[in-house]
Every structure is written in C-alpha cells, then in structure tokens.
Design a protein that fits this description.
heterodimer, A: 369 residues, alpha/beta, Rossmann fold, 2 domains, 7-stranded mixed β-sheet, 6-stranded parallel β-sheet, 20% strand, B: 359 residues, mainly alpha, 13 helices, 74% helix
C-alpha cells in the first residue's frame, strides 16, 4: 500500500519534471505489473497478410516479461466481437483489448468500452472523437509512405514501364497507397504508367488471380497489391515470371525470384505504447498515428533481383521522407482526369488530416476510383 | 424434405418405438460426434476432458456464458426458420445470406427515408425487411412453380445477386459520407435502436426470434393452413388432386422463409450494428441451413439447436483463448455433429420404412 502511494507521488513529481523522463520512468515501473492482453482478428492469423501482421506483433508482445497474450481469430464484426471482448475481460482478466479489424470500432468496441471503463481498448484504424469513451485509443500507420518506397523500387526495376496494381476497394486508405506507389514510380521515370484493378472485395482469391493475370497480359512487369491477403497475387506474379511488391507482412518466401519488397506494418510499436501506458496507468493516446520515422511502418526484406542502384535509391528516398525533405502529396498534383487536386505550393504532410477523405487517383494511373 | 412431414399417430408398440427412436437417435448421434471430436483433439495433442470442460465453461457454465450463448443464438433462430419453413413445403432454400443482407439494407434505408417517432420507424423497418427478404426468396418459389427452375440453385443465385446489389448501394448511393474506410449507411439514432431484454445484456432480437419460432410452430402444427402446407409439402400431386392452389402455397412458403431472413437482417441492423455494412454478411444465412437440418426442419426444435450452436460458438471463443486451439476446431465439432445427425436421420427413415411407413 505504502509502495503504491510512493509510486504515485514519484510519478507526479516526474510528471512535473518533464514528459520525457516521465515516460521513461513509467515504462520501468510498469514492467513489473503482470498484465493480460486480449487480441481479436477478423481473419486467419496465418493469412500472409493483414491479420498475420498483427499476429506477428502479438507474438512479439508475448515475449515481454509479465505479459500474457490471449488471441482469437476469425471473429466476425457482429455481436460475436462484443462477446469475445467481454469474454477476454470476464473470463481471462484482460486489461488491454486490441481490436484489429476496422469494423470492430463502431459499435462493438465503443459499446464494450463504455461498459468496462477500467479496461483499455486499442483499435486499429478507428478515429476517436470527443464524446467517445475515454478508455478507447485508436492507432494506425501511414502505410502509404512505405508504399512510396515500394514504388521507387518498382520504378527502377520495371523494363516495360507498365506497373499493375490489384486492389480491394477504392477506400481512402487504399487510394492514398496506390497514389503514393504511382507517384514514386513516376518520380523515377515519368513515362511509367500504373494500371489498377479493384476486385471489390477485401478477400477474393479467384478475382485477385484473374486481375493479376490480366495486368500481366497487358504488359505489366511489376505487380503490387492492396488486398487483405496478398498471397495469391504474389504467387501469380512469380508463376508468370514478373516482379511483385507485397503488403501487410512479408511475402518474400512466396516469390524468391521476383519479390522486390513490401510495405509492412510494424504494429508492435503502437501495441507497446498502449501496453506501457495501460500498465503505468497513464492517460492513453486517443489518436495514435505514425509512419516511417516513428517505425509504425517499414519496408520488408529486399529481394535478390533488386539492383544495387535501385536499393541505393530506396535508402536515399527513405532518408528524405524521414527528414521531411520529400513530401509525397505536394502540389502541383493532377488527378487522372486532368483536374488540379493539390495546387502548386501546397503540401500535405504524412499526418495531414486533409488526406483522410482522398478520393482521386493521380495522373498516370489508369482505373476508376 | 418431405420425409420430415409429421406422421399421423400410429398404434401401440410402434408409437412407443417411434418415440424412443426420435429421442435416442439424436442423442446417440451427438455422443458419436463427441467421441469422434475427442479423438480429433487428442490427435491434436490436447486433453479431451479439458477440451470438453472448456466447451462447457465457455458456453453454459455461468450467467455470462449463457448470455454469450443466447446473444449468439438469436440470429441463428431466424436464419434457421428461413430454411425450415420453405422445407415444410418441400423446398430446399439456401439463399438466406442474401435475403438477410437485403432485409438489413431495407431496414436501414427505411430509417433514412422515414422521419417519424421511434416506434413507427422501428415497425416500418421490420416491415420493409420482411417484405424485401420475402420477395427475394418468394421469387425463387415462384420460379420453381411457374418456370420449373430448381429453387435451391435459384435461391443461391438470387442471394449472390442481392449481395452484389447490397455492396453497390452501401458503397454508392446509400453510403454515409462519414464512413471513410468502412462503407456503411448512416447510423441509426440511439432512440431507434432496439433495447436489451430487461435485466440482461441480450438484445430483444432473441425474444423476437423465439416468439416467431413459436408462432411458426403453432401455425404449422395446429392450424388448418399449417395442415394444408404439410399436405402440399408432402405431395404436391395430392394437393392438386384435392383442389389446393399448390403454386400459391409453395410461393407463399418461400416468401415466408425469405421474410424470416429479412427480419434477421433488420434485427442485426436495429439491435446490433446500427448501420447496414458488409459486417452484416457474417455467414448467418449459411449457419441457418445447418440449424434447420439439425432441427429436422421443426420450428420448435430450432430454438434449442440454435442455442446449442450459439453455445458452441461461445465455447470456440474460449477454446482459442485458453487452449490455443485453432478457430476451426469448433467447426470440426459442428461438422461432425451435422454428419452424425444426418446419418441418424437416414437410419430413422429406414426404420420407419421397414415398419410400413407412416405417411
């Protein structure tokens, strides 16, 4: 009891001294507290894609001292999600719930969070607004920055100057990524064109394979993808002898010959943030976002096919993105219908909320958003 | 499914044997499935006793577990009725998924179009959903009677069609501009949302589902219309011979089935989701087929079977967390149950046939 009061006093003191020390001390103290973390996935943990990127972070959390991780996969975005979260809290004593699917946020996470104010809820992709429960935090990564780096490699490696993209739905998040990929490739060579096919579903292996095949038939020699599980697209590209760029987690082992790299999530960074704050009983971040600099997203393994020149260009661009010298969405920028969407002189940095509702494909991209 | 039509009372020992079979066969089937599942988990390196204890803990051992089970069961009852009612008229309908999504969409669209007091809006949402789901599957019944198209195939294809239209509308004209990365219709106002059953965390959809199942049971079992439906389902030829409007009865039964799925969609929107989005397409329609066949198309039996299924899902949740079993393990158990009950059904059928039938 005395110990607890001491710690509280200490924290208050350190808090006054400065945030940086405060955080450091909080982490050191928190490391003692045992905690159970419950993680829900909407798909399979071994999907070579989005869910696996989260499962990898879960596996990393599991190795931390005092942390018990319980997981549940294939939880639909229905009442089942609410009951699973409640089960993690009631039956397993979870103090931190990480809900990884977009569709869990409203109403499921919000409803259960209101019911259990002592539990921290971290949701991937949601946008917290004032009035929502205080124990809810949201996190996401600026994956389009990593997609930009994939685009640099694709631009350097393509010989046909035609790139293909297989995408799920024209949601803003995907459109940002497709645009970043295209802008990067065209910064290498303005003659490059990008053709995108939307399958209309987050997972549809048959249509994904058909789309990749069709893009390759039309001359694309690099195929990138924005679907929940890029396995089929990457495998199709490899089978047809063209290069590919991955997404979410590493698909390098599926395409030893043609894999360039992938835009990967590094969820363990936001996970650890929520974990530390929950353990230290610190106020949580309601809107936690980060890109390359914060290590929320990263470039995956670089394939053997990539030339040293392309690799050097990637490293150079990465440094420029991190330093802020290069801003991906900066004017003048035209969409693929010829309209000026970002006027000259305007720049939208990574964290600019003006990019939230983006709904246009940039110049040089063929396809309909 | 004509085989499931209720038999007229038989005499003496035969009736006793029949009753014993009706109880013993399903119980034996469940035991066989459980034994097979025990072997399966043992091969997977888990202790079967521990697995069955966890199943009990997850689904049935506490108030929380029961609430968990019952709230998962609610949509399965209506989805099961969507298959069972047309089955009583001799049809196998598998388009519930599309009808459910359509019903949910109709409910959400009605909410958007109708500024009225909450109770009126709620009633209108249910009505619109019943009508939309009913028309979709009713069309499958109509196509069967008037155009000779197999209702199983047509209901499945109509379901795909409905899902495509659903996506088109939710991601297009009906999309709430605020729903950026997860297209959905505009959310329902809190006062329009259906409440929970007082004293519990289970939404009122469970009460609605059980009431509808009991009504369907009473209708089929105790009314002249129900008897007529069973005659038509037993043999359309006989129905025609005695002058029944068979085509209309069958189309109507298909409509009623679709209406059930539509209602399930409206309940999902009005009690759980608050919007129509792709989250509605969660496989309830498919689970409904399983529930209906396990209940042998009886609206009354659907209630306990749906609860059993809900309990298994709740258990599957705990199995993953406690024993690190893959989510598919509970599906394996469901599959084994399904096969065992079908085999038991076939055995029961051959027993009835040996004893001179009964229909």
């Amino acid at each position: 009891m005395t110990h607890r009061i001491d710690r509280r006093d200490l924290l208050a003191l350190l808090g006054a001294a400065g945030t940086a020390t405060w955080l450091g001390a909080g982490r050191a103290l928190a490391a003692e507290t045992p905690i159970t973390v419950g993680i829900l996935y909407s798909g399979s943990k071994q999907d070579y894609g989005y869910n696996q990127s989260h499962a990898n972070a879960a596996a990393a959390l599991r190795k931390l001292p005092g942390v018990k991780v319980i997981e549940e996969e294939r939880v639909p975005e229905t009442i089942a999600a609410q009951r699973s979260m409640e089960g993690m809290i009631n039956q397993d004593g979870a103090k931190l719930i990480i809900a990884t699917s977009f569709g869990y946020f409203d109403p499921h996470v919000l409803k259960i969070a209101a019911k259990y104010p002592d539990v921290t809820f971290a949701h991937c992709g949601g946008i917290w607004k004032p009035g929502m429960p205080e124990n809810v935090g949201t996190f996401y990564g600026y994956i389009f920055s990593a997609q930009y780096l994939s685009g640099i490699l694709a631009g350097h490696m393509s010989k046909s100057k035609k790139l293909g993209v297989v995408a799920a739905k024209p949601t803003p998040n995907l459109i940002r990524s497709i645009n970043a990929f295209a802008l990067a490739a065209r910064s290498v060579d303005p003659g490059i064109t990008v053709q995108v096919i939307f399958t209309g579903e987050w997972t549809n292996p048959v249509r994904e394979a058909e789309s990749a095949t069709s893009l390759i038939d039309q001359g694309a020699d690099v195929i990138a993808c924005h679907v929940d599980s890029p396995k089929v697209v990457v495998e199709t590209a490899e089978k047809r002898g063209v290069m590919s760029c991955g997404y979410h987690s590493s698909q390098a082992e599926l395409a030893p010959k043609g894999y360039l790299t992938g835009a990967e999530w590094n969820w363990v960074v936001p996970y650890t943030d929520f974990l530390d704050r929950t353990r230290a009983r610190q106020p949580l971040e309601h809107y936690l976002r980060g890109g390359l600099a914060a290590d929320f997203v990263k470039t995956g393994p670089i394939g053997a096919v990539v030339t040293p020149a392309a690799r050097a260009a990637l490293e150079q661009t990465r440094a420029k993105l991190i330093s802020g010298e290069t801003v991906i969405f900066s004017g003048p920028l035209k969409d693929n219908k010829g309209n000026v969407v970002i006027p000259a002189g305007t720049v939208h940095k990574e964290n600019d909320r003006a990019l939230d509702p983006i709904n246009y494909l940039v110049d040089g991209v063929t396809g309909q958003a | 499914m004509s085989a499931t039509a209720t038999s007229p009372p038989a005499s003496g020992g035969l009736a006793l044997g029949r009753a014993a079979y009706a109880v013993l066969l399903p119980v034996a089937a469940i035991l066989v499935a459980a034994a097979a599942f025990a072997i399966f988990v043992a091969l997977y390196g888990r202790n079967p006793v521990e697995v069955f204890t966890t199943i009990y803990l997850g689904g049935f051992a506490s108030t929380f577990a029961w609430q968990n089970t019952l709230s998962r069961a609610a949509p399965l009852i209506l989805a099961g009725l969507a298959v069972a009612i047309p089955a009583r008229a001799g049809m196998i309908i598998i388009g519930g998924e599309g009808a459910l999504a359509f019903g949910g969409l109709a409910a959400a669209a009605t909410y958007l179009a109708l500024p009225a007091p909450p109770l009126v809006v709620q009633a209108a949402m249910m009505f619109a959903a019943v009508l939309t789901g009913g028309l979709l599957i009713g069309l499958a019944g109509w196509l069967r009677q008037y155009r000779g198209i197999n209702e199983t195939i047509s209901s499945l294809l109509l379901s795909y069609l409905a899902l495509a239209v659903f996506h088109q509308l939710v991601e297009g004209p009906l999309r709430d501009p605020g729903s950026l990365d997860k297209p959905a219709t505009a959310p329902l106002a809190p006062e329009v949302m259906l409440p929970a059953i007082p004293g519990t965390d289970i939404h009122i959809g469970l009460a609605i589902s059980i009431a509808v199942a009991l009504l369907a049971f009473a209708f089929i079992r105790y009314t002249v219309w129900g008897f007529t439906l069973r005659v038509v389902g037993g043999s359309a030829k006989v129905g025609r011979m005695i002058g029944l409007p068979v085509n209309r009865w069958i189309t109507g039964a298909a409509f009623a089935g679709g209406a059930m799925a539509g209602l399930a969609g409206a309940v999902e929107v009005a009690a759980v989701q608050g919007t129509a989005s792709s989250s509605l397409i969660a496989g309830y329609g498919t689970s409904g087929i399983l529930v209906a066949f396990l209940s042998r198309q009886s609206p009354l039996a659907i209630i306990p079977v749906a609860i059993l299924m809900g309990g298994l899902q709740a258990s599957g949740s705990l199995l993953q967390r406690r024993l690190d079993l893959p989510d598919a393990s509970i599906l394996v158990f469901q599959g084994l149950l399904f096969v065992a009950v079908l085999v038991a059904d076939a055995l029961g059928q051959s027993f009835r046939d040996k004893n001179g039938g009964g229909r």
